[in-house]
Structure formats: C-alpha cells, structure tokens
Design brief:
Low-confidence stretches: 266-286
CATH architecture of one domain: 2-Layer Sandwich
GO molecular function: D-arabinono-1,4-lactone oxidase activity; FAD binding; L-gulono-1,4-lactone dehydrogenase activity
CATH topology of one domain: Uridine Diphospho-n-acetylenolpyruvylglucosamine Reductase, domain 3
Organism: Sanguibacter keddieii (strain ATCC 51767 / DSM 10542 / NCFB 3025 / ST-74)
Pfam family, one: FAD_binding_4
Mean pLDDT: 90
Strand order of the largest sheet: 16-13-15-14-18-19-17-20
Largest sheet: 8 strands, antiparallel
Protein name: FAD-linked oxidoreductase
Keywords: Oxidoreductase
Helix content: 25-40%
Number of strands: 20
Radius of gyration: 22 Å
Shape: globular
Bound molecules: flavin-adenine dinucleotide
CATH class of one domain: Alpha Beta
Length: 486
C-alpha cells in the first residue's frame, strides 16, 4: 500500500501564503510518505491534465507554490528524528542521510529537502557544523528556501543555493535523478534554484562549515553617515562578516547590524555554550550574564521588534499622517546592544508582525544612489511607510538563476504592513530598482515576466531549455512560473 496522507473530504481548505499575498484552492493537498507515493501522485495528476506544485512553509510572497491541481508537501518524506544528546528531545533533531568530512574543515551533508531550516540548524549543530550564512528567519523549508534563492547578508558570502553541492529530484516522468555539478550538471543548476519548475526536490547535499559563534553589534546610526560609509576604504560592508541596515522611511535614522565571527564552538558543537576557562566560579558569573543577556534579548526581540512594532504599525494604519513621527519614535526606541551566540541564533529572528515585501538585487556599486532615489520618491509621493527598508549584501556567485549571478550585489527590500495599501509604494520602488538593472527576489512581490528577466539573467535560456527537456508537458507549471519562464 502506498504511504500517503491526502487532505480529507472532497476539497482541502483554501491555501494562502504567510502574508496572505497569494491564495489558491488546490484540488488535492498531499503529504506523500514515500517516493512511490509521490510518483503515483505525479502520474495521476498527469492523467488528469492538471498541475503539481511542491509547497514548503508558504513563506513566499508570490504565487510560487500556488496551484488548482495537486499541492505536495514534503514535510514527512524521509523524516527520521534522533534524541538530542543535551535536551533528550527529538522533535527538532533529524537524522541526516550522509556526512562527508572535508579536508579543510566542515562537511558535505545530505538531508531531506522538506526539512525546516530550524531543524536543519539544530541538526547541523549536533554534528559540530553550520551553514556559513543564513537569512533572517528559520521557518522556511530547505527546498522552499533554495527554490526562490533565499539569502542572508555578507559581502564575502553567497546565498543558500551556492552552498548546494548535490540535488536529488523526481522529474515529471517519475524518475529519481541524483545531480551535481559533475553529473547531470545542467539539471543540477536548474534544480538548486528554480522554483520547482524542473522537478520535486527530494534531498539536498550542502557544503557546511565548522560550527561558529557570531558577535552581533546592533546600533542606531544616522542615515547619511551610513550611506557615506557604505563603500570606499574601510567601509562598513567589507569591514564586517555580515553587515545589514534598516532605514526608517520619513526619518534620517537607521539601525545597523554588524555580525562578526567570534571563536568556533566547542568540539561537541553545543550551540550558544559559554566557555568556562577558569572553573565553577566563572561558570556562575557566565550563567548570570547569559540569563541577563537572554532577558535583554527577549525585551529587544519580542517586545520591541514584535510587540511594540505591531503597535506602531496599527497606529500608522489608524492615523497614516502620524507615520513620520511614529517612525522617529520607533527608531529612537532601539538601544545599541552587543551579544555573542551560536551563528544560527544570531542570524535568525522571530517575525510576528505580518507584512508584504518586494526585494530587488542591485549592483552593489549603485546601492547608495538607489536608496537616495527611494528616499526622494517616498517624500515626494506622500505614501506612508511605517516599515523599515532593509539593505543587505552578497558576493557574486555562479548559480544560473541567482539574484547575485556574476555580480557583487546589494539587496534593497521594501516592506509594508499587511493592513496598509502597498501598490503605489511598491510600484514606485520597483521603477527605481529596475532602472538600476535590479533582479527581483523570486519569492517576493514583483511584476517582471520572461521578457523583463531575459536581459537580467544570461543563463535564463539555458534554464528554460532544461525545463523543456525534463518537463515538456509542464506538469510543474503554475501561473507564476508560466509568467516567468513562458
Ligand atoms: C518573514 C519572512 C522572512 C523572510 N526572510 C528572508 C530572508 O532573510 N532572505 C530571503 O532571501 N528570503 C526571505 N524570505 C523569503 C523566503 O525565504 C522565501 O520565499 C522561501 O522560498 C520560503 O520558503 P518556503 O519553505 O516557505 O517555500 P514556499 O514559499 O512554500 O515555496 C517556495 C518555492 O519553492 C518550491 N518548493 C518547495 N518545496 C519544494 C520541493 N521539495 N521541490 C521543488 N520545489 C519546491 C515551491 O513550489 C515554490 O516555488 C522571508 C519570507 C518571510 C515571510
């Protein structure tokens, strides 16, 4: 008997993204428990002439995962948990398929594609490993995050897809294919970042690094001072391992985040464990410090970043004209802070205030001018924006559809609270991003289609040729992929 859970009743509930920015009514919502069950789903959908979309955690803002046909979640496929040596709990710690140590440190780690990033981080930590860079939340699945080109920040670091060394996927024909740069190289390129348009990703081999700690320094800084120091000698971006900034529109204030590598973790890879060089007395002091720091982080992360932030957005919704003053107060409420913890704890924050987002990757050399243009546009337009603009950086990479393909990149993200109008703001910002040859994040709102993308991605035709070869009947297509790839 095939192992599979299919949504009960005639039709599953309507599906929506985390932000409510895209919706659909799938005919079937299935969580296959084996590759045979998945293959059977593909065959059945093909016979019915309807589409199949894999879904992750629904954290894209676009209709990347939407379908009126079969929606497939890989949440359970291949999932096996192991007890955590420290806590005894097993729910977040998964068995990995393979760990191959690398000569220079770190390892190639093969995990199931439907694993959540949180579980992935905890699992890697258990092996004394980590991902070199991460985005700012861990709610996504690995396959979902890879499929849209999810990235973090750091001028010497790439996005997640460039850390992939192998992808196992099921093609439209139901074949399971192991791909890498050396085996089925073109399919590998299209599978590691391709919105699930060439197949359902089953497992991923990641290049990991030895687990490390990060020291985070967060501080309010005037916008003009930050813009002056973004490039040139000793600039903020190159001086830190992971630099990012949040600018509050209608103000001249930013919050900068500078994350730098501290010492590596202990040999047992325990995340966030304080070192104890001088015995039990030191341990007590360290523990007290950590408790204080945890309390402080709770105030900053939960109350300021989420609770108070929700309140400021609600107030801006009720009284939009107050937005500049609200932003001025909110940006002053953020006190400087410094803390050190396991890398994934520093990279990742909770995001409880719901928002819509557009993010474009622009050439790094143009980011200051782009920000000045957005500032001028916001002031001239009269729109009200209580959400900060986020600016991040990445090294150039060679992934075919990476937003950082072949160029040093700066990411500029505009957000709007879900209860506020966003169309004018996003259209104004998008015109500025496009003028700078910006490439839209595949999971965030934008209006580009294949014609617009062709000029931005030198390997787009290669990607589409792989799609033609492996999914000629367009089993994996939906409205979004048809708009992007034809
Ligand atoms: C609060 C918030 C914070 C975010 N922070 C960041 C950030 O810091 N950096 C960043 O770059 N992005 C960020 N994003 C965007 C997010 O990382 C991406 O949209 C990501 O794709 C979401 O992953 P998911 O698991 O929810 O996938 P989904 O949105 O469910 O799916 C994304 C795509 O992956 C495909 N897919 C999913 N599983 C498979 C599979 N097994 N095989 C083939 N295709 C598959 C889907 O079909 C779809 O095309 C953020 C989004 C939110 C809501």
């Amino acid at each position: 008997m095939l192992s599979m859970r299919i949504s009960p009743g005639r039709r599953p509930a309507p599906w929506t993204t985390w932000a409510g920015t895209a919706r659909c009514q799938p005919r079937v919502l299935a969580t296959p428990g084996s590759t045979d069950a998945l293959r059977a789903l593909l065959h059945e959908a093909a016979e019915r002439g309807e589409g199949v979309r894999a879904v992750g955690a629904g954290h894209s803002f676009t209709g990347a995962a939407t379908t009126s046909g079969t929606m497939v979640s890989l949440a359970g496929l291949g999932r096996r948990t192991a007890p955590d040596g420290r806590t005894g709990r097993s729910e977040d710690v998964e068995e990995v398929e393979e760990v191959v140590p690398l000569a220079g440190g770190g390892a190639l780690v093969t995990v199931r594609a439907g694993i959540g990033l949180r579980a992935l981080n905890l699992t890697l930590a258990r092996h004394g490993l980590a991902l070199a860079n991460l985005g700012d939340i861990d709610r996504q699945t690995l396959a979902g995050a890879l499929g849209t080109g999810t990235h973090g920040t750091g001028a010497r670091h790439t996005g997640l897809a460039a850390q992939v060394r192998g992808v196992r996927l099921m093609t439209a024909a139901g074949e399971v294919v192991d791909t890498s740069a050396d085996t089925h190289g073109a399919l590998f390129e299209a599978a590691r970042l391709g919105l699930g348009a060439v197949g359902i990703v089953l497992a991923v081999t990641l290049r990991t690094v030895p687990a490390f700690r990060l020291t985070a320094r967060e501080a309010p800084q005037p916008l003009d001072e930050v813009l002056e120091r973004l490039d040139g000698p000793g600039n903020l971006v190159d001086a830190h391992d992971h630099f990012e900034l949040y600018w509050f529109p209608h103000t001249r204030r930013t919050l900068t985040k500078r994350n730098d590598r501290a010492e590596p973790l202990d040999a047992d890879g325990a995340p966030g464990r304080a070192r104890d060089p001088s015995g039990p007395g030191t341990r007590t002091v360290e523990t007290a410090r950590r408790l204080w720091s945890t309390g402080r982080r709770w105030v900053d992360d939960e109350l300021l970043s989420n609770g108070l932030f929700w309140a400021t957005n609600e107030l801006a919704t009720l009284a939009p004209g107050l937005t500049p003053r609200i932003n001025a107060v909110a940006s002053r409420a953020l006190a400087p802070r410094t803390y050190t913890a396991a890398s994934h704890e520093v990279f990742v924050s909770a995001r409880r205030v719901r928002f819509a987002e557009m993010e474009y990757a622009v050439p790094r050399a143009d980011v200051v001018e782009v920000l000045r243009e957005v500032d001028r546009w916001v002031e001239a337009s009269g729109v009200h924006v209580p959400f900060p603009v986020e600016v991040r950086f990445a090294a150039a990479d060679d992934v075919w559809l990476s937003t950082a393909h072949g160029r040093e990149t700066a990411y500029v993200a505009v957000h709007q609270y879900v209860r506020l109008p966003r169309d004018r703001y996003f259209a104004g910002a998008e015109a500025i991003f496009r003028e700078a040859q910006g490439r839209p994040h595949w999971g965030k709102l934008h209006t580009l289609d294949r014609d617009g993308l062709a000029a931005l991605y030198p390997r787009l035709d290669d990607f589409c040729a792989v799609r033609d070869a492996y999914d000629p009947g367009r089993l994996f297509a939906n409205a979004y992929t048809t708009r992007l790839f034809g």
